[in-house]
C-alpha cells in the first residue's frame, strides 16, 4: 500500500507546484524512452540487414578465397545506430521487451543517497505505526557516512524503506556485519543492500573477506556492484574522469568473485543519462578528448545510453559464458540442502 506517498487533500501551492514538476519530469523521461527506442529499432534493422547481406554474399561467392562484389557487401549502419555488441537475436528480444511495456503505466521508482538529513527528516511520514522516508523508495548511505555511531545510520535505522550501504576499499568485514545487524535486526531479506565500490584493481582482493564475513554471520543482504565510484580519476586540470574498461572489469570481477564464494550478485548500480554526452572515456563512443567537449554533468561523469547498453550486453554475455559453472554451483547447493 503506497497511499502514504500520495499528495494529501488540500495541498498548498508549493506542493501543487511540486506535483506539476514531477509530471513534467515524468513526461520528459517518457519522451527520452521513445527516442531511445527509435534509435534501437534503427540499429536492430541495420544489424539484421547486414547479417542477411553477409549470408547472401557468402552463398553467391564461387570460392572462399574470392571476394564478393561490392554490391553484395553489407551496407554500413547509419550514424545514428547504436553500435552494441549483442547479436541480432538478443537485440530483437530486448526490443520486443521494450515495445511490450506500456510507457504510460510504468511504475516510477526513486532512489538516491540519504545525505541531507534535514531534508530526509522533513520527508518522513508515519503510516500504520511505521515510519517511511517518502523522498524515495530506496535510499542508500554513502561510503563516507556509514559509521555506526553517526547520524546517517541512526536515521536509516528508524525507517522502513529498503536501505543500501556503499562498501568502499576502507570497509572492514566486521563493520559491515554490524551495520547490517543495526539496519536490519530482524534479518529480513531485501531490507539491506550492500553496494560494493572497490575499484577494478582491488575488487578481487577486498570483496571475498566481506562476503565470507556476512555468510558466517548469517546476514541476509542483497549485493550490488557500483563500478562507477571506485574507478573515478582526476585529471591534472581537476576534472573527474571514468574509464569504461575499468568499470566493465569491476562488474565482471565482482560477478566472478561472488560465484567463487558461492554468493550471488543481485544487480549493478550505474550512473547514466539518455543525453548525447561523452563523459566516460574508452567506451564504444568515447575517444580521446571527446569528453572535454560534452561534459554536462554537475558532478560525476555518466555513461551515455550507448555505453550503458554496451556494458549491459557485455555483462550478459559474460554471464552466459559462466552459465555452466553457475549450473554446477546450483546443483551442488541443492545436493547440500537435501543432505541437511
TrEMBL record:
Keywords: Amino-acid biosynthesis, Aromatic amino acid biosynthesis, Cadmium, Cobalt, Manganese, Transferase. Binds 1 divalent cation per subunit. The enzyme is active with manganese, cobalt or cadmium ions. Transmembrane segments: none annotated. Residues 48-83 have a biased composition (Low complexity). It catalyses: D-erythrose 4-phosphate + phosphoenolpyruvate + H2O = 7-phospho-2-dehydro-3-deoxy-D-arabino-heptonate + phosphate. InterPro entries: Aldolase_TIM, DAHP_synth_2. Belongs to the class-II DAHP synthase family. Pfam families: DAHP_synth_2 (PF01474). Phosphoenolpyruvate binds at residues 166, 197. Gene3D superfamilies: Aldolase class I (3.20.20.70). GO terms for molecular function: 3-deoxy-7-phosphoheptulonate synthase activity. This is Phospho-2-dehydro-3-deoxyheptonate aldolase. Pathway: Metabolic intermediate biosynthesis; chorismate biosynthesis; chorismate from D-erythrose 4-phosphate and phosphoenolpyruvate: step 1/7. It is an enzyme of class 2 (transferase). It comes from the Eukaryota. Residues 43-84 are annotated as: Disordered. Its EC number is 2.5.1.54. Mn(2+) binds at residues 229, 271, 300. GO terms for biological process: amino acid biosynthetic process; aromatic amino acid family biosynthetic process; chorismate biosynthetic process.
Amino acid at each position: 500500500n503506497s497511499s502514504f506517498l500520495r499528495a494529501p487533500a488540500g495541498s498548498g501551492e508549493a506542493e501543487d507546484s511540486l506535483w506539476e514538476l514531477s509530471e513534467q519530469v515524468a513526461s520528459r523521461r517518457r519522451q527520452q524512452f521513445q527516442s531511445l527506442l527509435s534509435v534501437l529499432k534503427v540499429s536492430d534493422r541495420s544489424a539484421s540487414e547486414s547479417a542477411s547481406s553477409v549470408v547472401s554474399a557468402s552463398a553467391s561467392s564461387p570460392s572462399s578465397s574470392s571476394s564478393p562484389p561490392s554490391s553484395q557487401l553489407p551496407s554500413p549502419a547509419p550514424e545514428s545506430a547504436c553500435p552494441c555488441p549483442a547479436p541480432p537475436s538478443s537485440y530483437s528480444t530486448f526490443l520486443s521487451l521494450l515495445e511490450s511495456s506500456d510507457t504510460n503505466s510504468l511504475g516510477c521508482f526513486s532512489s538516491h543517497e540519504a545525505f541531507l538529513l534535514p531534508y530526509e527528516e522533513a520527508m518522513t511520514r508515519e503510516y500504520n505505526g511505521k515510519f517511511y522516508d517518502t523522498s524515495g523508495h530506496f535510499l542508500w548511505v554513502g561510503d563516507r557516512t556509514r559509521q555506526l555511531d553517526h547520524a546517517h545510520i541512526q536515521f536509516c535505522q528508524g525507517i522502513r524503506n529498503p536501505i543500501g550501504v556503499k562498501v568502499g576499499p576502507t570497509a572492514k568485514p566486521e563493520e559491515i556485519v554490524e551495520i547490517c545487524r543495526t539496519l536490519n535486526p530482524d534479518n529480513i531479506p531485501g531490507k539491506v543492500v550492500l553496494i560494493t565500490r572497490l575499484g577494478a584493481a582491488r575488487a578481487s582482493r577486498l570483496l571475498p573477506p566481506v562476503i565470507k564475513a556476512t555468510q558466517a554471520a548469517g546476514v541476509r543482504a542483497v549485493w550490488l556492484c557500483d563500478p562507477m565510484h571506485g574507478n573515478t580519476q582526476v585529471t591534472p586540470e581537476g576534472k573527474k574522469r571514468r574509464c569504461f574498461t575499468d568499470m566493465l572489469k569491476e562488474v565482471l570481477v565482482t560477478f566472478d568473485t561472488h560465484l567463487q564464494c558461492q554468493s550471488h550478485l543481485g544487480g549493478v548500480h550505474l550512473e547514466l543519462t539518455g543525453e548525447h554526452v561523452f563523459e566516460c572515456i574508452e567506451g564504444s563512443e568515447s575517444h580521446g578528448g571527446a569528453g572535454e567537449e560534452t561534459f554536462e554533468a554537475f558532478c560525476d561523469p555518466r555513461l551515455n545510453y550507448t555505453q550503458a547498453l554496451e556494458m549491459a550486453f557485455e555483462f550478459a554475455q559474460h554471464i552466459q559464458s559462466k552459465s555452466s559453472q553457475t549450473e554446477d554451483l546450483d546443483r551442488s547447493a541443492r545436493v547440500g540442502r537435501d543432505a541437511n
